[in-house]
Amino acid sequence: MKRYLLSIVLALCALCAFGEIKYVFYFIGDGMGANQVLGAEMYRSALEGEPLGRVQTLMTSFPYSGSAGTFSASNGITDSAAAGTCLATGKKTKNGMLGLGPDSTRLTTIAEELKAEGWGIGIMTTVAIDHATPAAFYAHVTKRNKYYEIGQQLSESGFDFFGGAGFHHPQGKKDDEPVNLYRLAEERGYTVVHGMEEFSEIPESRYTDISKMILVQKDDDQGAKHGSNLPYAIDRKEGDLSLQQIVRTAIPFLAARHERFFMMVEGGMIDYACHSDDAATAFGEVWDMDEAMREAYAFYEQHPDETLIIVTADHETGGLALGNSDYTLHLDVLQNQQCSGWMLQEMLLKDKKKPSWKEVKQLYREQLGFWDKVEIRASEERELKTLYKNTRAEESADAGIALLNKKAHIGWTTHAHSAHVVPIFAIGAGAEHFSGWHDNTEIAPLIRKVKGER
After folding, report:
1. Which residues contact 375 (CB under 8 A, 6 or more apart)?
2. What is the C-alpha to C-alpha distance for residues 89 and 111, in angstroms, rounded to an integer?
3. Residues 6+ apart with CB under 8 A from 169
4. Are 213 and 160 in contact (CB under 8 A)?
5. pLDDT in tens, 392-430
6. 82, 136 in Cβ contact below 8 A?
7. Beta strand pairing status for 261-267 and 120-125?
8. What is the distance between the alpha carbons of residues 355 and 371, in angstroms, rounded to a whole number?
9. Nearest to 86 by CA among 418, 293, 312
10. How many helices, marked H, and strands, marked E, lie in the chain?
11. DSSP readout, 127-163?
12. Is the pLDDT of residue 6 over 50?
């Protein structure tokens, strides 16, 4: 009997020693398969002149890792809405649906559950805050492109912090959608801040007066709107908002107001770069999310027994292959790329007319290193020139990126999503539960499980 009582006491002491999970960071690399992570590490190693694998992302240093399948309720290849819904609720749904089951039954997300329990909730991304993955944590609609309705539900959620590019269609697209979503959010108690410069102008004395915040990218000097995405890391200039800045702002904001908080952080632009089959840009986005992760990791180091950090992806995009011919990779070639394929397209179209072949060649030389740093054979130049003559200017940008990828020995199977498994990395309280093979339905329930066990 004494031995039995002693075992109970020891068990209770062990539980008390571990403490209670109070802080959950849920990182989702949109489109980030295992090869996107490995390729990013190998590329950075090549850039820094280190042996392959020597330069490691933070996420792959975490003590627990696993993999997850990603199929949806309607197809072997998921879209971000169905995958995001699954990561948020633990339930499969049809492609295109958000926060609803296949039969349109409303699903409760883990963020909504924790909000009801008094947790602070932060949702942040490098794309629009009403895009599929962030919306999966607060919205319930039959079609992911119902952006105005999703935007209305964002401010209805009462979540404490949103950060990202902004709303896709803040003014709506119909006569019966007259209320600007930013104004609606302000009416519901949100302070909308445009960029870190504007945030820095808020006096510390006002911090406690701000109960809820939406932090978005400011418009550029030409008045261009940034509702769809933040600039790629490779294109970022001074004054642009970054995911790391958003996370760095959100952590003290939530911690000052709540004893417990949950943050979903999406590296959404990994997906966009992979849809464009743009390896250098995609690898840069993986590293950019990893930099944002370091903000969470620094917080974890201060609260190791109370913090859980999970990293995964909604699906893989592009069917990325690290190798396209012989047994070699030449990822160092990618260092000659100075901008994203999207930015290269903008450069080619800046005068709103098709540039001359001479101008196209000069951009290839300046932005991709062709001829000067990357050997271009006469046959390859002829192919580029023929494509330039027979297609739109933006396709010349795609062709240049494709040729650079080919020379790096990188292959792509699609411009869309694949059914590849995605990685899981975890550290902190309860992280051991996330190792091994999982279906993506298991991740949100595991978060609930370990939170309840502590």
Report:
1. none
2. 9
3. 147, 148, 151, 227
4. yes
5. 878 899 999 999 999 999 999 999 999 999 999 999 999
6. no
7. parallel
8. 19
9. 312
10. 16, 14
11. B-TTSHHHHTTT--BS-TT-HHHHHHHHHHH--SEEE
12. no
- pLDDT at residue 9 is higher than 70: no
Pick the closest to residue 240 from 265, 213, 262, 269 (CA basis).
269
DSSP secondary structure letters along 247-288: HHHHHHHHHHH-SSEEEEEEETHHHHHHHTT-HHHHHHHHHH
Q: Residue 291: which H helix or E strand, with range?
A: helix 279-302
Structure tokens at 363: 């951009």
What mean pLDDT comes out for the span 325-329? 91
- The one-letter amino acid code at 98 reads L
Give 397's Cβ-side CA count (13 Å radius).
21
Report the distance separating Cα 145 and Cα 143, nearest Å: 5
Answer yes or no: are the C-beta atoms of 287 and 47 closer than 8 Å. Answer: no
Beta-bridge mates of residue 265: 27, 124
Residue 29 pairs in a beta bridge with: 267
CA angle (269 as vertex; 371, 86 as ends), nearest 5: 145
Dihedrals phi, psi of 192, to nearest 5 degrees: -95, 125
State the span(s) of the chain assigned CATH 3.40.720.10: 21-320+414-453
Q: Which helix (H) or strand (E) holds 321?
A: strand 321-322
- Rounded Cα gap, residues 342 and 232, in angstroms: 9
Residue 51 has pLDDT above 90, yes or no: no
- Residues 6 or more apart whose CB falls under 8 angstroms from that of 150 comprise 98, 130, 135, 139, 141, 144
Q: Which residue has the higher pLDDT, 284 or 221?
A: 284
Neighbours of 362 (CB within 10 A): 13
Tens of pLDDT along 67-121? 999 999 999 999 999 999 999 999 999 999 999 999 999 999 999 999 999 999 9
Task: Note the CATH number of domain 21-320+414-453.
Answer: 3.40.720.10
Token pair recorded at residue 406: 């080919």
Average pLDDT over residues 12-21: 53
The DSSP secondary structure of 8-58, one letter per residue, reads HHHHHHHHHHH----EEEEEEETB--HHHHHHHHHHHHHHTTPPTT-S--S
Distance CA 128, CA 253 (A): 21
333 near 412, Cβ under 8 Å? no
- Cα–Cα distances (Å) from 228 to 2, 225, 269, 345, in that order, read 64, 8, 10, 17
pLDDT in tens, 254-279: 999 999 999 999 999 999 999 999 99
